[in-house]
């Protein structure tokens, strides 16, 4: 007996069986003299390795690729199918020219066969007669003997086609069906006078009813299933409008008697639905056209490929525009991501599971498979209906709810009967409270900014969501966020669904770990979170934002929280790998992943949780013994604050050329004053005070030199107050200055406008922040990386938009202070410094925003550990950048204008510690590309 199960090791257990079946098939069909099976063949000049390939012995070229997976779900995955196709592409120069490019994916129970062709999507490479289904592994004793024998027989059927160069018989019938569906959808949609979103929903709902009817009718007929009796012929082409309406309505009602209620029930909006209410002759022609396509092609399409997942992929890729979905905050869940969530959250074959925003049903599909697998592993026989009764979904879009229901029902169409039900509710999650009913909640919530122009979160939406959340007795943490993303509300609300010890698996935007509003979400989950898992940004390609998996648990929480950074995508291919990593419960770092165990009682919501997911090489970099805290070399590190108390337009005034004086504006107006057309008071600074308007830096809008010139510090002229305010005086001007009538007039006007106490505070803030800063760091930036060195000995007024580092200490005795200031400025400006900015700063909707405590985390080189020559080499590279004065934002990768600076710094790091890199160039490449990824992640 061959013992095999879905949790068996793919390479150690599955591969030998597939290899033997391939070799035995080669022998049995008589090709073993001219060809051989190669396990893990190396593709020249490529880093990817297929599982198996068949190679001709004579030419040493390849003719067939076989990729092995562990589950039927994996075999149907477009990710793995595309992965197999990529091997054929990579083998291009080494493929036997006269042979067609056949490749397949199999888990032994099922095999899907393709033949590659240029310029078409994967779905157009699928061959007729797929998938090839074999016996399932025995759930009692895990016997796979029959499955392996049938796999070998399938190979014996395929190999002669390959070696005889039989032209591929591609499946085109589904393409024709989906093309007709799409054409009629577009035409019917254009007839309607509703808003675009409503038109799309109504049209898709009706046409999908037709498509589902056609598929089920032919599937049940071809499989000789008794359910075929429920399906009658389509309305005849010459039927009148009333006859057509009556005939099709009766067809749908018969199916509802069997089940499929969620698919074939009339659209819930009676006033707007297209059928049977409101059905017109204008609509009829498009229904007829689609039905005629079904009559011509659908039976052959089902015969050639009855796989529902294949139809799903074709339909959704044709109907849904990725960018349109993203603009509304929707992202369809990737099959592999869904599998990960289901595996991490569903622990029992008896679990009750909910997806409260189920979309097209991907997460529920994965939940079904996980429950089925757990039941089979525990030797519990569960019927289709039993599993469906454990799975619930809520979806506000009626068409997506149709897709979700059809997806679940089609998991086992042979077992559908009049007791079958897919529990998908059409409705708003916030109108569907179900307290303490579920063991697992899986959710991929909508990501929608508070101010999204395409689908704004309205005041009515916020009221509805707040009422629902507080109505369940939950802490409404969203109220504390200034610009909460829509997923904040969803995460807040879904907590009430869980029973004690229940788990929630949620896909969230990574930026909540370190952005300003994320503090409140972190506060909410700090006593609930069990694990946070990050992965390569491009692994789940449907997401245009960077995401993490967050696992929450209701009660009996562990003392520690696991943070996992997955760098090797292969770990994600098998969810059990991730479960095994989480079970380690100890800090572990490998080339493939990093696990950080953080005591729960040390998690602080106001801190940057992204630090626990830092890249291993970055951690090694920060731990270098020649890097020190930034305050080691600077006695004074602070943030400007000249206008922190207000009156910024007076502190940084505008020059009136005609009047030859500077001026600012008075108090900000109230909304009522603005609506009434009231103008802000103009505060004139007397001409005699023009000399007091001098150097200042207010914002980072201007293009400045990295070594500031006099012109650079004159761009934002500032009023330099001569002294602190004296509130014992009626106008706050110190007694010693009362003889200056210009100052008296200016202060009198300002006290009248702001009041004595407020004006005194304004003056003191500006006076206190008129200093001589040496290193200037912008507090926030979106696209521009800047750090400035100020070589001048002039005081300048510094706004809240900048931090500064002053008073150099613990210097290197062999270099001048200026050289050392420049050296540190250069380091902070380099990729090595800017990575620290990206990882420590808050992410505020794509804006990188620093706080003082974050600056204090920065590491800089210990000046005393470097030679004068090393310091001067970096300073020379910095001076060269200053002369060229290029812009860079960090996303340039290895093509950055600061490349030479990065190389100089990498060289002095490499000579002391190579961090595992072969040379300084490799180190530079790595950190520049790492920075580029961080910058791109922030902006998404």
Mean pLDDT across the residues is: 91
Q: In this structure, how is the largest beta sheet organized?
A: 10 strands, mixed
Q: How big is the Rg?
A: 34 Å
Shape summary: globular
Question: Helix tally?
Answer: 30
Major sheet strand order: 9-8-7-10-11-13-12-14-16-15
The class by helix and strand makeup works out as alpha+beta
Task: Report the uncertain regions.
Answer: none
Cα distance spanning the termini: 53 Å
Secondary structure: helix percent: 25-40%
Beta-strand content bin: 15-25%
Number of strands: 33
Keywords:
alpha+beta; single chain; 940 residues; six-stranded mixed beta sheet; 30 helices; 33 strands; globular; ten-stranded mixed beta sheet
Architecture overview:
The chain has 940 residues and is of the alpha+beta class. The chain is built from 30 helices and 33 strands. A ten-stranded mixed beta sheet has the order 9-8-7-10-11-13-12-14-16-15, with helices on both faces. α1 (10-28) packs across α4 (145-163), α25 (817-829) crosses α28 and α26 packs parallel to α30 (920-939). The longest helix is centred in the first third of the chain and has 27 residues, at 196-222. The radius of gyration is 34 Å and the shape is globular. The chain starts with 9 loop residues before the first helix and ends with a helix. The mean pLDDT is 91.
Brief sketch in words of this structure:
The chain is an alpha+beta fold and 940 residues long. The chain is 39% helix and 15% strand.
How would the blueprint of this fold be written?
Elements: H1 10-28, E1 35-39, E2 52-56, E3 62-68, H2 72-75, H3 78-90, E4 102-106, E5 110-115, E6 132-133, H4 145-163, H5 173-191, H6 196-222, H7 241-258, H8 261-264, H9 281-304, H10 308-319, H11 322-327, H12 335-345, E7 353-355, H13 362-377, H14 384-388, E8 391-395, H15 398-409, E9 423-426, E10 438-443, H16 459-471, H17 486-494, E11 498-509, H18 518-525, E12 529-534, E13 547-553, E14 560-566, H19 575-583, E15 588-589, E16 593-599, H20 616-622, E17 627-629, E18 634-639, H21 648-651, E19 654-656, E20 661-665, H22 671-675, E21 682-685, E22 693-694, E23 696-697, E24 718-719, H23 741-754, H24 756-768, E25 770-771, E26 775-778, E27 780-781, E28 788-789, E29 796-798, E30 802-808, H25 817-829, H26 831-840, E31 842-844, E32 847-849, H27 852-855, E33 859-861, H28 868-884, H29 899-910, H30 920-939
Parallel strand pairs: 3-4, 7-8, 7-10, 8-9, 10-11, 12-14, 23-29
Antiparallel strand pairs: 1-2, 2-3, 4-5, 5-6, 11-13, 12-13, 14-16, 15-16, 17-33, 18-30, 19-20, 20-21, 22-24, 25-29, 26-28, 26-30, 27-32, 31-32
Helix pairs in contact: 1-4, 5-6, 5-9, 5-10, 6-9, 6-15, 12-13, 12-19, 23-24, 25-28, 26-30, 28-29, 29-30
């Amino acid at each position: 007996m061959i013992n095999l199960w879905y949790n068996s090791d793919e390479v150690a257990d599955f591969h030998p069986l597939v290899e033997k079946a391939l070799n035995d098939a080669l022998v049995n069909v008589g090709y073993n003299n001219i060809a051989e099976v190669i396990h893990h063949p190396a593709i020249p000049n490529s880093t990817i390795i297929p599982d198996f390939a068949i190679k001709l012995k004579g030419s040493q070229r390849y003719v067939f690729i076989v990729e092995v997976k562990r589950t039927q779900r994996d075999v149907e995955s477009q990710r793995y199918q595309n992965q197999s196709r990529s091997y054929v592409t990579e083998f291009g120069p080494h493929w036997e020219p006269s042979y067609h490019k056949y490749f397949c994916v199999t888990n032994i129970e099922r095999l899907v066969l393709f033949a590659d062709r240029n310029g078409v999507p994967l779905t157009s490479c699928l061959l007729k007669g797929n998938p090839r289904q074999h016996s399932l592994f025995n759930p009692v004793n895990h016997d796979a003997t029959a499955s392996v024998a049938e796999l070998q027989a399938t190979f014996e059927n395929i190999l002669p086609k390959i070696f005889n160069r039989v032209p591929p018989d591609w499946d085109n019938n589904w393409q024709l069906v989906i093309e007709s569906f799409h054409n009629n959808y577009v035409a019917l949609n254009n007839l309607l006078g509703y808003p675009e979103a409503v038109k799309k929903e109504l049209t898709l709902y009706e046409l999908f009813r037709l498509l589902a009817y056609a598929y089920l009718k032919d599937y049940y007929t071809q499989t000789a299933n008794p359910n075929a009796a429920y399906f009658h012929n389509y309305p005849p082409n010459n039927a009148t409008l009333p006859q057509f309406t009556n005939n099709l309505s009766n067809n749908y009602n018969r199916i509802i008697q069997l089940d499929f209620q969620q698919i074939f029930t009339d659209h819930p909006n009676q006033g707007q639905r297209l059928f049977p209410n409101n059905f017109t002759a204008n609509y009829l022609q498009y229904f007829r056209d689609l039905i005629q396509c079904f009559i011509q092609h659908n039976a052959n399409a089902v015969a050639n490929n009855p796989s529902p997942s294949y139809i799903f992929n074709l339909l959704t890729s044709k109907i849904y525009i990725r960018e349109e979905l993203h603009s509304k905050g929707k992202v369809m869940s990737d099959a592999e991501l869904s599998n990960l969530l289901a595996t991490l959250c569903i622990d029992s074959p008896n679990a009750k599971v909910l997806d409260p925003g189920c979309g097209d049903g991907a997460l529920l599909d994965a939940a079904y498979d996980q429950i089925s697998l757990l039941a089979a592993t525990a030797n519990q026989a569960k019927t289709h209906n039993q599993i469906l009764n454990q799975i619930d979904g809520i979806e506000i879009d009626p068409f997506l709810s149709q897709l979700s229901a059809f997806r679940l029902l089609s998991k086992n169409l042979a077992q559908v009967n009049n007791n079958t039900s897919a529990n998908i509710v059409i409705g708003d999650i916030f109108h569907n409270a179900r307290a303490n009913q579920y063991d697992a909640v899986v959710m991929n919530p909508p990501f929608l900014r508070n101010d999204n122009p395409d689908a704004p979160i309205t005041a009515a939406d916020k009221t509805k969501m707040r009422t629902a959340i507080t109505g369940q007795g939950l802490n409404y943490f969203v109220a504390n966020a200034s610009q909460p993303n829509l997923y904040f509300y969803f995460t807040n609300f879904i907590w009430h669904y869980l029973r004690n010890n229940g788990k929630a698996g949620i896909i969230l935007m990574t930026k909540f770990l370190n952005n300003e509003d994320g503090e409140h979400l972190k506060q909410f989950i700090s006593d609930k979170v069990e694990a946070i898992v990050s992965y390569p940004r491009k692994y789940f390609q449907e997401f245009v934002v960077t995401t993490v998996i967050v696992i929450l648990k209701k009660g009996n929480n562990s003392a520690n929280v696991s943070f996992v950074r997955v760098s090797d995508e292969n770990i994600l291919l098998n969810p059990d790998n991730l479960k095994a990593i989480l079970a380690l419960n100890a800090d572990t770092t490998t080339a493939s992943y990093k696990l950080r165990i953080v005591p729960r009682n040390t998690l602080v919501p106001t801190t940057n949780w992204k630090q626990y997911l830092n890249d291993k090489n970055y951690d090694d970099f920060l731990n270098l013994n020649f890097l020190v805290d930034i305050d080691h070399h600077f006695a004074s590190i602070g943030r400007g604050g000249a206008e922190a108390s207000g009156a910024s337009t007076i502190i940084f005034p505008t020059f009136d050329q005609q009047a030859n004086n500077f001026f600012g504006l008075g108090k900000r107006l109230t909304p009522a004053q603005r609506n009434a057309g009231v103008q802000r008071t103009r505060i004139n600074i007397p001409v005699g005070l023009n000399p007091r308007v001098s150097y200042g830096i207010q914002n980072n809008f201007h293009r400045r030199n990295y070594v500031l010139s006099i012109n650079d510090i004159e761009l934002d002229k500032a009023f330099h107050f001569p002294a602190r305010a004296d509130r014992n005086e009626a106008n706050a001007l110190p007694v010693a200055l009362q003889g200056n009538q210009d100052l008296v007039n200016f202060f009198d006007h300002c006290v009248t406008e702001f009041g004595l106490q407020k004006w005194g505070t304004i003056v003191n803030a500006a006076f206190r922040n008129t200093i001589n800063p040496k290193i200037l760091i912008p507090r926030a930036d979106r696209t521009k990386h800047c750090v400035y060195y100020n070589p001048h000995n002039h005081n300048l007024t510094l706004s809240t938009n900048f931090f500064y580092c002053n008073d150099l200490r613990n210097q290197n005795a062999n270099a001048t202070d200026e050289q050392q200031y420049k050296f540190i400025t250069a380091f902070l400006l380099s990729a090595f410094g800017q990575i620290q900015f990206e990882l420590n700063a808050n992410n505020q909707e794509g804006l990188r925003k620093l706080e003082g405590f974050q600056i204090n985390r920065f590491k800089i080189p210990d000046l005393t550990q470097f030679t004068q020559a090393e310091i001067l080499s970096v300073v020379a590279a910095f001076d060269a950048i200053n002369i060229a004065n290029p812009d860079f934002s960090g996303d340039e990768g290895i093509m950055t204008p600061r490349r030479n600076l990065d190389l100089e710094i990498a060289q002095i790091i490499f000579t002391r510690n190579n961090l595992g890199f072969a040379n300084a160039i490799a180190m530079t490449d790595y950190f520049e590309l790492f920075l580029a990824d961080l910058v791109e992640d922030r902006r998404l």
